[in-house]
Amino acid sequence: MSDKGSHQEPPLPPDLDWLEQLSEEDDGDLVAVADYGPKRSNDETARMFKLRRNLDQLDSLHRQKEHGVLKTREELKLCSENVKSLEKQRDTLEEQIDQQKAADNSVAVFRLRTQHKHLCQKLQSEEELEGRIDTELKLLKRELNELEVELSRFSSLRQELQEEERLFQDLKVQKAATRLRQERDASRNIQLKIQQLKDKQVTMKKKEERECLKETEEHQANRRITDKYLKETRKRLHQEEAEKEEQNRQLQEKRIQVVESLKSNIAATHESLRIKQSRAKANAQEKEQREKLLRESLDVQGINSLRHMHQKKQLETIKQQQEEFEEKQKSKKVIVEKNLQREQLVKSRTRQQAKLPNISGTDKLSSLRRVGDSLLHYLEPRPPSAREERATAQLRDTCGLSSSDDEEPEETMRQEEDQLSLTDSLAQPECSGLWDEKYKKLLNEKTTLVQTEVKQEEAVMTSGKLNVPAKPVHGKKWKGPLFISKPEVILFKDFEVGKTYKKKFVLTNTSYTKNHCKLLGLSAQLKDFITINFKPAGSLSVGMSCEMQAVFQPMLNEDLEGDLHFSTAAGPFFVPVRCTIKKCELEVDSQLVDFGSHVVGQTISRTITLTNKGALATLFSLDTSTWLSPESHHVQMPSPVSAPTCQETSSQKTKCGSQKSSGEIRTKQERQKLCEAAQQEKPGEVSEGSAVSPEVIPEATDAELKLDEDTSDISLGNVREGEIGIFESIKLEVVFAPTVPGEATLDFHIKFSDQSSKPIPIHVRGNAVSIPVWVDRPTVDLKICMFDRLYQDTVAVHSRASAALKVTFDVCPEMRKHMKLLPKTGFIQAQSSFNAQLKFLPRLSLSKDAPKYFDSDTGVLEVPMTVQVAGQVQPVHFTVQAVVTCTDLRFEPTEVDFGYCSVFHSVRSRVRLSNLSLLPQEFGFLGVPEFIEVQPNDGFGTLLPQETLDLDLILSANEAREYNFQLTCKTEINRDFLLSCRAVGVRPPLELSHSLIQFRATALCGNSQAIIYLTNPHANRNQSKQPVTPVVRDVTTPERPRLFSFTLPKDSDISITPAAGRLLPGQRCKVQVTFRPRLLEQDIREEALRVLQRAKLLRQKELEMKRLTEQETKKEIPVESAKGKKSPANRKHSKKPDEPKRDQQSESPNPLDIQPGSEHYEQARASLLCSVTQRWSDFIVPCFVSDGDQPDDDRQAPPTWSAFNTLYLKLQCPAVRPSLVVISNNGHSVIDFHQVAVGQRVLKKFTVQNISNEPLDLRTSLLDIHGPISLLNALRCIRPGGKHTLLFAFSPEQEKTYCETLDICDHKMSLEVTLRGEGVVPDVTSSHPGGLLDFGCVLEKESTSQVVKLHNNSAVEVGFRVLLASLSPPRPQSAAEIVAVMLGDYTDSEVRPIVGTQNYSGQSVFSAGPVKGNIAPGQSQDITVTFQPDHQSVKYSDELTIHLMNKTEVCVMDLKGAASSNNMYLHGGDVLNVPFEPLLLPLTPSQAQPKDESEGSSEPRFTVLVTLRARCSGGAITPAVRELQVGCISSNKKSGEFYLDNVASLQQQGFSIEPSKGTVEAGHTRTIKVTWIPHSGHKPYEVVQTCVPLTVKGDEKQVYRVTLMAFVSHTAD
Fold it and tell me: Taking Cα atoms as reference points, which of 1041, 1075, 1015 lies closest to residue 1211?
């Protein structure tokens, strides 16, 4: 142990774990093999691999270094060459500088010096680069040398490693050889086992065949015995059928009577039901009446009637529930008693049956009595229900099949019992010798007892209590089976569904002691199909046996397997049960047919025997396709119903008249369909020899199969398909008729319609031996030959004979002028060959000389040739084939007339050149004049056989003259073909700068432009009025003005500006050509129709699906018979609304109904834009030029136009799919702002989408910076499928129409957007002219309103705004203005601020609404101005401005108002304070003026100053007059009054007041006029002052202290 531990190997690193696994595998494989040498350790192997890896890395590094050195050397060499070239250039420049200095050219010297400087700098940089590369090269060389030294150190180690690797490879080869030997031994053992198994199977098959033959003989003997008794049974059945017919007739009469009685009973029942319903209705009405009276009486007594009635109903329901519960208890009690009686009866019967009494003859009468009861049940005169009538009708139609699914389970069970009883009664024997009635009766009773016991003991069996070990007897313990079954397996072979099979088997006790056998039951899968008739035999002695019978009634057509379980005293055992369906067992006597060797020309046939050892017939066919693998494919016959038909016919043969035969066939067909579907979903596995999937291999057609058979020497006989019955054999013939020497093989398969039967491959081979002399080429093909050309070939004749033979070549007489074989006679040596020369020179007379062999229509020549061999009866035949053709070329047309050709344009004429030969011919046009061009390929090319080529002859006249010439076309065989041409050259009076315009690829909805010039080259002003005729010589055309006109093609995307005009001699006109590709209206309408039709089809499909689902739901819902009578009427009503829908759907849309701009039109247009790919259009636009100007005497006369003066402009217009499309404004690129008021701003959105596959960077052209149209947002990159919205603004400043064009461009297209709009000056008038708008005086905290109406007289919608000065930002005022308002001239009442007193609450005193809005053309707008003060003041004021959106003012109103705390107020007098109120709240009158206790008055007093100034001018004094206003607010509709005290004292001082008192109506004012006339003695500048109280009475009494102050003024106003 210590030694082993000391020599343990260290573990390998993780990256070499696979070495350890490899060594373990190798050790395991070589356990039984001798040691081949010293065992390698893991360390040695790992060391070897590591060394190899390190050496490989060193080698790779060495190669890299060498590559780097070579690359650096190349760079150094290249750099040196560059330095040399730069030095040469420098020397050259220095020489040039010296030369220019000598020439005193300072400019050139300066330029050369600059180049010299740059060249020197470049030379310096190259030299520096050369130095760096040299240093790098030296470094790389040093590293390479070091690496080579390192590699030389490992040379010995490399040799050692190579030796180790060689040893390692040898070891691996030895291991592989040992493993291969072991595998061969194992495969040999397996083959021996397989052969033994096959031999065993062959013996088993022979044994089964013998047993089957024996059973068939027994069956035939039994059938002969039973035929004797069937004849008598048929006679008795005929008599019974006659009796049944008589009984059926009587039964029909009874049923008719029953139906009549049933009708009368139904009518009586209806009458009784009607009477009962009327009674119930009367009772319900009486009950309701009683409840109503009771409710009224309870309400009168004060009792809650609802509660009382509810309690009463609850008591009734409780009582009813108790009665129902008692009835249920009684019924359950009766059921329990019946069950107890039934159990007692069953127990008594079991006791009686256990005693096994003697069977009397009355048992047969009991079965007959049971049959009679069932017949009475059928003959009972009861009315059949509707469901029973439907069931009987279906039974008659299906001839005995199972009843419909609508019948109730109880009825079906009863009918099955009756049928079983009838079959029991009818299946009685004619002779007592064949069937023992007593034994059968006793056996049936015992069988029922055993079945009941088996059901009771199933649970015991499953619990496992019977697994008792066998007891030893006399010290011996039985080890084998306790019972042996004979047969060992209960086999029901080739069963059919619907039949009953019985099988007897014997159980023998093989144990050491007595034992009993008890039946436990069957496997779960066999319980429903197999019953066991078993009579317990009690204890069985050793070697004793008991019999039992298994009855099998199959209901499924599939194999069944299970066990029959028994229990004994020593333990359980089981007997296997196998049930197999009918199958095909197909085989052939030989799969290899070898014909051997036969001479060519013989016919040999062999037969193959195909045998079906199964009980199922099938169809077969022979398939010669070689790609079918028999291991992995099932055969599909040409008729898909062949297999079901075969099964159906076999079932009909074996069981005629069976009631379930059609059902069996249906189930078989369904199973076969399911199997085929499963095989299609899961195709079979591919065989080992085939690597092609069966799904990929196509099925061979009949034509291919026939072709294979015709080309092969081995063919099949007449029998290629048919039916092979059960236990039947068919002979298949194979014929070998060799026609060509050599080995022939044929592989074919025998396919079967039965899917469980695999195809059988058959291999046929044979060898054909040819005659001694033969030709290696039976057909000499000279291909295609030309007339008058010599063709040669060699004919080789071979001999396999052992002596020399004489051969003679024979040519038919008709072909001797055209064909020869040289030599005509020769000798061919033994085992050698002989070559003859074939010469073929076809003449033009071939069709006349040999019409038998030459077809002049097709040119095919077939000449049979014969080689006569001396001493050989059969000559050698071969055929010479050739196709003879001509060498002609043909022009169409034969002459070309170009007509009149302009010297500025080229004229093209197309000629068709046809090759009439069957061979390709090269051609070329030689000696072509310089003014004509032949295309394509400059007139050279190759014409394929029978090909026609279009040639374009392009004439470019270089001068005005006549052209007559010929073109020569020469072929490769030196044949010439001539083509005559003529033309007339003319010179038009006008010239185009370009005759060809190639537009760029223009996107749809985009545009491309080109500029050309039209020139009248003549400068002389002399005009001639005579027209010019075409000239044929180069003469100068008269100089005169010319008219021109461009004629555009119809429906083209081209526009030319100007399209017509007049050119004077020497004048040039600029012509703009624009290409705007667009979609055609017809294409858009057709696309819209397609979209509508697709939508219509979808709707129809949806309606159809909806209708089908409704029909399915109606079918699923059960319909009662009473409702079923109403269904036709409902259907009629339901069909009526569908008819107009169908009419509507049937109408196809009209293309004219799809108008531009509609939804369908725009959808179709967008769809076409996205789906269009590319479109190429070529246009030739003629420009017609007149012969001269219009006559001077008649300007209305049309000018003369000549076709020879016409100029042509060719346009090449490629159109592509746009990368950018407009998705707003219905796809239109025109933005119309319509009419917009001057100064107003309108915004429009314009959305584009990128429909290309790459992002787009958009850019736009510039708009007029001083114009009214502007782009507000910036452009951005649009991703594929993305959208971008451009925002345009239009704000006109003048009354005129604007129109601008904006180009939205990307790198592919330019989208032109037209922007247009019209500026209109708005005309809006106001009902208020402006100025003062006085609201008068109102009570504080109340409001009043006035309406101002605005009317729009313009044709556009106008927007307005209402501004209040109090709510607007203040206007800037100077300091002087502010002081003048606050301090200066404040006594003047006319000087007031714009914004006066405001409310204390912060709310605006004046408000207006609406603040802004739009007024439609010809409409009006009311603006309501509201005055709402919250305290008393007379200084409320504001300014209201109404202006339009273009800042135009409509009107400016000064708002004024006053507020009072009482309904009476006084206005007038002088201003006693500043126009601005303080921010503090003012004191109330009671606080401002303390009460006068002496007077004792509590009325508030106010001071009013009235200044009267009389004018004195020229000694005359004008009286002073002032006015005061006393008003009454109309809020409370009460009038007020006023009066003045001490009026008489005022008159003394010259004051007069009128009126001194009065009343004021609500809502009105009264004017108090104060006049002062100074007395005559009044002194100048003397102020007269007095005070008078003014009392006003309204809601409250107020006293105003009016101070009158008067003086005389001598100043002028």
Answer: 1075
Confidence grade of residue 802 (pLDDT, cut at 50, 70, 90): confident
List Cβ neighbours of 1248 (8 Å cut-off, separation of 6 or more): 1220, 1221, 1222, 1223, 1258, 1278, 1283, 1284, 1286, 1304, 1311
Q: Exposed, middle or buried, 892 (CB in 10 Å: 0-12/13-18/19+)?
A: exposed
Pairing of strands 592-599, 895-902: unpaired
Per residue, what are the HEC states of 524-571? HHHCCCEEEEECCCCEECCCCEEEEEEEECCCCCCCEEEEEEEECCCC
**Distance between the two ends of the chain, CA-based, in angstroms?**
150
pLDDT in tens, 101-159: 888 888 888 888 888 998 999 999 999 999 999 999 999 988 888 888 888 888 888 88
Three-state DSSP state, 1179: strand
Query: What are the tokens at 1362?
Result: 């209402």
The set of residues, in sequence order, having a beta carbon less than 8 Å from that of 1387 and lying 6+ positions away, is 1470, 1471
Strands 895-902 and 976-986, by their bridges, are parallel
Spatial contact of 1029 and 1203, defined as CB atoms under 8 Å apart: no
Residues 1067 and 1057: their CA atoms lie apart, in Å, by: 17
1064-1074 b/e (C-beta count within 10 Å ≥ 16 → b): ebebeeebebe
Of 593-602, 703-712, 1241-1250, 1358-1367, give the lowest mean pLDDT range: 703-712
Residue 741 corresponds to which amino acid?
P
Q: How far apart are CA 737 and CA 711, in angstroms?
A: 11
Question: Distance (Å, rounded) from C-alpha 1583 to C-alpha 19?
Answer: 141
Contacts (Cβ under 8 Å, ≥6 apart) of 1017: 990, 991, 1065, 1066
Return the SS3 of 750.
Answer: strand
- Distance, in Å, from the CA atom of 569 to the CA atom of 563, rounded to the nearest integer, reads 19
Q: Residue 1447 is encoded by which pair of tokens?
A: 């800042």
Confidence of residue 929 (pLDDT cuts 50, 70, 90): very high
Taking CB atoms within 8 Å and a gap of at least 24, the contacts of 73-78 are: 73/137, 75/133, 76/130, 76/133, 76/134, 76/137
* DSSP letter, residue 478: -
Tell me how many degrees the CA angle 582-588-594 measures, rounded to the nearest 5. Answer: 170
**Looking only at Cα atoms, what is the longest distance across the chain?**
194
State both tokens at 747: 């592989």
* Bridge partners of residue 1245, in order along the sequence: 1287
DSSP bridge partners of 1178: 1212
Q: Residue 1184: helix, strand or coil by DSSP?
A: strand
pLDDT: which is higher, 1134 or 825 = 825
Give Cα 665 to chain centroid, integer Å. Answer: 43
Question: Residue 924: which H helix or E strand, with range?
Answer: strand 921-926
Q: Report the C-alpha gap between 683 and 693 in whole angstroms.
A: 9
C-beta separation of 1470 from 1387 below 8 A: yes
Task: Quote the pLDDT of residue 52.
Answer: 85
8 Å CB contact between 929 and 973: no
Q: How far is CA 1105 from CA 756, 1100, 1109, 1609, in A?
A: 41, 8, 6, 109
Band the pLDDT of 403: cuts 50, 70, 90. very low
> In whole angstroms, what is the distance from residue 1114 CA to residue 1133 CA?
16
pLDDT in tens, 1288-1300: 999 998 888 999 9
pLDDT in tens, 21-77: 444 444 444 333 344 455 667 788 888 888 888 888 888 888 888 899 999 999 999
For residue 835, give both structure tokens.
């070559």
Give the model confidence (pLDDT) of 1485-1525 as tens digits: 444 444 443 344 445 567 888 888 888 877 777 888 888 88
State the sign of the Cα–Cα–Cα–Cα dihedral 585, 590, 592, 595: negative
Q: Are 1474 and 1572 in contact (CB under 8 A)?
A: no
